[in-house]
Design brief:
Helix content is 56%, strand content 8%. The chain is built from 13 helices and three strands; from the N terminus they run H-H-H-H-H-H-H-H-H-H-H-H-E-E-E-H. A three-stranded antiparallel β-sheet has the order 1-2-3.
């Protein structure tokens, strides 16, 4: 009986405690939250987007740590002094000298070297390494084709794309902001020169192979090297190499004198079929057959096996 009376006394207290705890865990959103957020958004849109600022303007920026991290990310050993010089452009030094003159320093001395010589040296190194890699991996392509491939790989936008994605944009010391593709490309060339001076030609050539030469697998070679008159080029090539006379032959046709006409032409040389092509008229079919013949001769087919760059022999760095 005693226990029953005590339990009846505790029941209201337990119910009251449970109701109070339920009130504490409720997550009601106040009525002022939505209007406040809308007003903040309206003010943000009225002010406009935040202007671009260089990464160095942030409080936690540590240039020395970023320079060290750059080499660590690429798994390369750079001399810190040379790497700093590779990132320093002439415009930045001129800007700093002007600032010193404004405060009354007659003979300003920034104590830094620009990367003009390193850019020129890096351009020569990249061109030489690419020539040797292209010649060793695609020996069937003639000289004019190899030159076109090298020029494509060394285009400003390609080198700027690589430079941006290896993290040079925030480390560049230049008066312009944001930096242009020209500055990004020059910085990449200077980085190659800094690596060659620090770790030697073999490491620099491997660096160029991994970041520049591997782009060939992402592009159709026929788009890089375009032969304007394929039949004439094929005829001259076969004549120089004593392969015989080039002879186009009509293999098949359908739909003549209709808008759906199609012609199938084959290119023969010394009674051997070199390539075939289709077209809505005979001239286009001959041109496509000549292009197909050149692709087979130079091994530049779209379905060719991708180049295994890990097995590419290192170029002669002498």
């Amino acid at each position: 009986m005693f226990l029953l009376r005590n339990s009846l006394r505790l029941c209201p207290r337990i119910l009251q405690a449970s109701s109070e705890s339920h009130k504490l865990i409720r997550r009601d959103v106040k009525r002022w939250v939505a209007p406040t957020l809308k007003e903040l958004r309206r003010r943000r849109e009225k002010v406009g987007p935040e202007p671009l600022r260089p990464r160095s303007s942030h409080l936690e920026w540590n240039y020395k740590a970023e320079i060290f991290a750059f080499g660590s990310r690429l798994h390369e050993n750079f001399d810190e002094k040379l790497l700093r010089q590779a990132f320093t452009h002439r415009s930045y030094i001129i800007q700093e000298e002007m600032k010193q003159k404004e405060v009354g320093i007659e003979q300003p001395d920034v104590g830094m070297l620009d990367n003009r010589e390193m850019v020129q040296e890096g351009d020569e190194l990249i061109g030489r390494y690419l020539d040797q890699y292209i010649e060793s991996t695609m020996p069937k392509i003639p000289l004019e084709g190899r030159i076109s491939i090298r020029e494509y790989l060394m285009k400003e936008e390609n080198l700027a794309h690589i430079s941006n994605h290896i993290g040079t944009r925030d480390l560049i010391l230049s008066a312009e902001f944001p930096v242009t593709n020209s500055t990004l490309a020059d910085t990449f060339k200077a980085v190659v020169a800094a690596l060659e001076q620090t770790s030697g030609s073999e490491r620099a050539s491997t660096f160029v192979r991994d970041f520049v030469f591997t782009q060939l697998n992402q592009k159709d070679l026929e788009e890089i090297w375009q032969v304007q008159n394929p039949l004439q080029y094929l005829t001259e090539y076969c004549s120089r190499n004593n392969l015989g006379d080039v002879e186009p032959r009509l293999i098949g046709e359908c739909g003549r004198n209709t808008i759906l006409a199609a012609y199938h032409v084959g290119i023969y040389c010394n009674r051997e079929l070199l390539g075939t092509g289709f077209g809505e008229n005979i001239d286009i079919a001959i041109e496509e057959a000549a292009r197909d013949s050149l692709r087979d001769i130079f091994n530049t087919q779209a379905w060719r096996q991708p180049i295994n760059f890990q097995e590419c022999p290192p170029p002669n760095t002498q």
